[in-house]
Amino acid sequence: MKIMMASQTGLRAVAFAAGLVLPWAVTPAAAQTVKIGVILTYSGPSASLGDQIDKGLDLYVKEHQKNLPAGVKVELIKRDDTGPNPDVAKRLAQELITRDHVQFLAGVVWSPNAAAIAPLATEVKVPFVIMNAAGAGLTRASPYIVRVSFTLWQTSYPLGQWAARNGMKKIYTAVSDYAPGHDGEAAITKAFTDAGGQVVGAVRFPLKDQDFVPFLQRVKDAKPDALYVFVPSGKQAAAVMKAYADLGLKADGVKLLGPQDIVPDAELPGMGDEALGIISGGTYSAVSTRPQNQAYVAAWKREYGAQSIPDFMSVGGWDGMAAIFSVIKASNGQPDPDKAMALLRGWANPDSPRGPILIDANTRDIVENVYIRRVEKVGEGLGNVEFDTIAQVKDPWKEFNPAK
Amino acid sequence: MMARNHSRSLISVADGLRELFSLAATAGSGGGAARRTPSQMPNAVDVLRRSHRLRPLETLPWLVAAAAFFLLPDYLALGAQILLAVLFALSLDLILGYAGIVSLGHAAFFGVGAYAAGLLAVHGWGEPLSGLVVAGIAAGLIGMLSGAVILRTRGLTLLMLTLMIAAMLQEAANKAGAITGGTDGLQGMQVSPVFGLFRFDVFGHTAYVYCLTVLFLGWLAARRIVHSPFGRGLIGIRESEERMRAIGSPVFRRRLVIYAISAALAGIAGGLMAQTTQFVALDALGFERSGTVLIMLILGGVGRLYGAFIGAPLYMILQDRFAQQDPVYWYFWIGLLLVLVVVFARGGVLGIGERLVRRRSRRS
User: Fold this and answer.
1) Residues B330, A78: C-beta atoms closer than 8 Å
2) Is A48 an 8 Å CB contact of chain B?
């Protein structure tokens, strides 16, 4: 009896081990393949961010693979950095380079993760296409970095100028108390005060706080023309809007401003009518009527279902892959790192879903249109309707903080 | 009242330091304490001596680690991170497994060590070994100071307080953006080559050997501690605090000392992480890290000294494999495994091993 039991446990152990080993025992054969290592957050509470970028880049590959030179293929090797964990991200990049021999690194949601990877890109000369991480100084961390997303300075600074131009005299800023929040606060404050406006108050929310009423009560007492808000997620943004409406700020005519991060297109349906009227500075809106965008959204819905909505994170994936594809095409499938960087500096795409974009040859950061949008009813849902354009904005932070 | 509590805490810190020095002294004299014990208690001495002897099986982790260096050259970056996770889990085992202190905030000390080593390297002190020493001392001090306050509580209260200490440190690091870089992380670390000879390379050769050596030293220290009379005393406290108090054992002081030692070891693990990654961010202090190390230890087996050596590699290798196959849903498989271990294999992998050995010996 005992012997039988023991052998049963043994069998089970063998079966379990086999189950673990077999799925990855099969490796695909490589023809002439360009390998691209993609590091994104695929699991955990922020998985939705990685998901948008992932869908964007997959869609680009699917739609454009046929345009590659004959015999050239791309292989995406995807890794999950599990969130803002720079040690994990760096190790994954290390493995993608030493074990998988990738020719490009791409992706990265979080600035600290990108900063940890940057020295590796320099050391082994791998072009590193940042598809989201928005820390303003990041592109200086390595000469092999190219960024196709945006910085908070890039979206909030023009928004501040626009607010001052459009009759607002006094604003109040309210941001989450961490680096991107500080960036947004600094950007809007500089733009608005330089244009003659006045910042009548500033408050910083604890990062994970969900109760904004006590903070916004102070805003009500200060009676500003507008309130600038930055919080990291749509869920928190919805809570801010609720507090803003409950306290009667909306009824008092205080306008709510913010960067596109507080009104991601994909999360608007969950926010409800409280989001109506929010004015944001952003680089991409799913309801934009540019033909390139309409084609993009149509392709997206074909691939991921009519309910799925692309947002500004997704075009980072799309455009990043467009940049990499242009290098692969130009080098006929055999990209050399330094030549690739030469191509990427100054790379332009007039047909991006977000309008014309360009990589600045000096800073390797993106130059793009910033749109002033208002949340309105579009069809049956909500959308960020673009009503003003500030053309071809460079990252203002770099202009004010020139490289030494 | 406040002032009195304050001075009590200070006294207990002083007490703790004294205990620490006497422990170091016995360690230095090579089991002298055992020899001095009166001969009418040969049993206890024998037990201590026997447990102290190195069993052949205890060399196994080191043989495996050395073999991995030569056989799996592509996996050294992962290997280095596993080794430092083992050290971190080992430090948690000292308090959880031996003193019965449950902590959900052990990353506090990991993070303090990481930031200490990181800040040194940012400000021009890139020598790694001294950086590790400073990391250990800084974390040990924080452990002793916080322990002097929170170790007065028990059970759920203590659990919440450990969580809170880590959360407070993380928020402090976030607020002190000018020093720590806040959410952007600490940038610009310049770590010098080890002994001025071995540069931290992209393949992870140096990082692996460096972490392995430090882990070996940490293991020697931990092994020495748990097999000493002090370590036995800790087990007594874990099993029955009242009885230990009744026989005159300084319960609070012993708990405090092991807490500080554990914190220092965790700090050294954090320092290793900072130096091998050359980057530190807020996640070093995060709850996720505290939770993960607890899971690793439970997987391997708590209170057996080698649970860390099994749990950390098991967790990290499985995570690596699962996540490569399925970057989106790998957490599900880890969760399933954990449920299975908790339901069917109390005591973790080592618990299963022990039961198998016992069954075999009963049969023969």
Assistant:
1) no
2) no
Residues 275-294 of B with CB under 8 A from A: 277-284, 288
A80 contacts in chain B (CB < 8 Å): 323, 327-328, 330
Contacts of B84 in chain A (CB under 8 A): none
Structural domain boundaries, residue A125: 32-150+291-364
Cβ–Cβ under 8 Å, residues A373 and A387? yes
Angular region, A318: left φ>0, alpha ψ -120 to 50, beta rest: alpha
Q: Tell me which chain A residue has its CA closest to the CA of residue B355.
A: A6
Are A115 and B75 an interchain contact pair (Cβ–Cβ within 8 Å)?
A: no
Is the CB of B81 inside 8 Å of chain A's CB atoms?
yes
Per-position DSSP letters for A180-234, written without gaps between them: HHHHHHHHHHHHHHHTT-EEEEEEEE-TT----HHHHHHHHHH--SEEEEE-SSH
Of A43, A85, A91, the CB nearest to B283: A85
Together in a domain, A130 and A162: no
* C-beta neighbour count of B239 within 10 angstroms: 10
The ipTM, to two decimals, is 0.73
Question: What is the fold, at CATH topology level, of the domain defined by B2-363?
Answer: ABC transporter involved in vitamin B12 uptake, BtuC (1.10.3470)
Taking only the tens of pLDDT, chain A with its 404 residues reads: 444 444 444 445 444 444 444 444 434 444 589 999 999 999 887 888 899 999 999 999 999 999 998 889 999 999 999 888 888 999 999 999 988 999 999 999 998 899 999 999 998 999 999 999 988 889 999 999 999 999 999 999 999 999 999 989 999 999 988 888 889 999 999 999 999 999 999 999 887 777 888 888 889 889 999 999 998 776 788 888 888 888 888 888 899 999 999 999 988 888 888 888 999 999 999 999 999 999 999 999 999 999 999 999 999 999 999 999 999 999 888 889 999 999 999 999 999 999 999 999 999 999 999 999 999 999 888 999 999 999 999 999 998 988 87
Asked whether the beta carbons of residue B327 and residue A6 sit closer than 8 angstroms, the reply is: no
The residues near A149 (Cβ < 8 Å, ≥ 6 apart) are A130, A131, A132, A133, A134, A316, A366
- Is A207 within the bounds of a domain? yes
Interface test with A, best of B75, B122, B184, B191 (most A CBs within 10 A): B184
Residue A94: which of B184, B202, B288 has the nearest Cβ? B202
- Assess contact for B282 and B185: CB atoms under 8 A: yes
* Statement to judge: residues A211 and A349 lie in one domain: no
* Same domain? A337 vs A351: yes
